[in-house]
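Reviewer 2 asked us to include a model.

Predict the structure of this chain.
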Amino acid sequence: MHRTSTFTISMMIVASLMGAVLCQSAFADESANKARIELAKKFVNQMTRGEFEKAVKPFDKVMTKALPAEKLKAIWGGLISQYGPLQQIEKTRTEALKQYQVVFVTCQFERGKLDAKLVFTAENTIAGLFFVSTGSYQAPAYVNQAAFTEVELTIGKGLWSLPGTLSLPQGEGPFPAVVLVHGSGPHDRDETIGPNKPFRDLAQGLASQGIAVLRYEKRTRHHRLKMALFAGGLTVKEETVDDAVAAVETLTQQPQIDGDRIFVLGHSLGGNLLPRLGVASDKIAGFISFAGSVRPLEDLVLEQVKYLLSLDGTITAEEQQKMDVIIKQVEKVKSPELSEKVAASELPLGVSAKYWLDLRGYNAAESAKVLKQPLLILQGERDYQVTLEDFGKWKKALGTRDDVKLISYPKLNHLFMAGEGKSTPAEYTVPGNVAYVVIKDIANWIKAKD
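Predicted model (structure tokens):
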């Protein structure tokens, strides 16, 4: 977003005086922008050198509380795991955003490119930090914009209410509907990853097929700062389950929705939690596991780290050291001595002990055996985050049921987008869309439940 200003001056003498002032102001703005750019580049370089205590010093009070050095270290470590080491800072640019100034630092990593987006206050403190893709989203050809409308809805009430979008087919209805439940991380309603928006693809693709879809901002994104205050008491109930149940309830109140045909699609962690959603709500007609995980989350974290570090065929001493840290963290999660007193910094992803204790002993596939609703279980065979091993566990637990359908796709990754060879995080930086065959399989399965 760019600011534009228009001045109308009727007197030459006023114009002359104003000209001098404006020149000084423009010079000051240019000078201030240069200072912010240098601060932003310094921030990125400090993270590269592992100087996280120094990097957080320019944070304002809110950022200091929400993102201390240890959490910043974990975020940067996650980026490095996905994209490889930072190779260079390519360029910078600035934007005005209300009372803030934003600096974008384009970072070229080994396996992709991201913008570090730093939001500065007038005092040059950092009030926001985001890592965003440099690519751009394009709607897939299977989306027919004339076949549906989109309506803004509010999910839940009070402190944790969330904005959402209902993609509603044209016509009177009532229509079958799907609630989309996010994977791990602070996702937006489109589940944006790089330039890709798999939840928008699903919502608009299914709406083009006559199926309504509700997607919403995840609580850990929309209420990021409030959630930081409660991080020590966070479990998947607060992160995911409560809001998914509220979304189902919201759909039951829409006159154009068939309340007897409301389905829930859970991606990754969202798929893992489908049995918990089944227990929490009696208004769900069926479930769709979209690369839903089965194995313990800590095992998935360790496996992903090993996979990413081994992509180049070798593991350096430094990389082995990082892996050893993760191994110790995973061991602490599995230890019978784990208690809520253990610091989050000693555990995977910097997540509190209460979160891990809540998931202890939970097996999604085994828990799903008690669900009476039909299930559709989908899996990309090139997915390195949730793999065919998880798919095999779903199949072993539920494969004999007549109301369970399992489909795997040889060329699709974790986002159900097509590729060749080994899947890598670099794929997520390339614009793509959920494969049309997946949209059709979901639509056909839902329509068969009439």
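The chain has two domains: 17-133, 145-294+363-447. Residues 1-28 have pLDDT under 50 and may be disordered. We have added this to the supplementary material.
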